[in-house]
Design brief:
With 107 residues, the chain is an all-alpha fold. The chain is built from 5 helices and no strands. The radius of gyration is 14 Å and the shape is globular.
Length: 107
């Protein structure tokens, strides 16, 4: 379906919590709009990096590199590809927690 070979057990997965990448995606959607192509491209790049290239999607610098590769400008990278895991006021943290709650409720 995707046309690429997937790695069933990537070297870095499971590893640290995936929140850093997931919250970045949430921040991008908040800044750009839900379903914006750059946010979707970044989300796909994260998945491709993990499941095809075995990239370290838990590393902030790697995520910044992926963001740049899909065309996200440096100013937006600086605002969205950040480690705010414990910042309850951050839009990315809030959206990720809501997404997690909904997923857990659905089972």
């Amino acid at each position: 379906m995707l046309g690429v070979p997937l790695v069933s057990k990537p070297k870095v997965y499971p590893g640290q919590p995936i929140q850093l990448a997931a919250q970045t995606i949430c921040r991008l959607q908040h800044e750009l709009g839900w379903g914006h192509q750059l946010a979707l491209d970044f989300a796909f790049a994260v998945q491709r990096s993990l499941w095809v290239e075995e990239g370290n999607v838990y590393d902030l610098e790697h995520l910044k590199s992926l963001a740049g590769k899909v065309g996200i400008d440096e100013a937006l990278v600086q605002r969205t590809v950040v480690d705010r895991l414990d910042d309850e006021g951050d839009k990315g943290v809030q959206q990720w927690k809501e997404n997690l709650r909904v997923a857990e409720d659905l089972g």
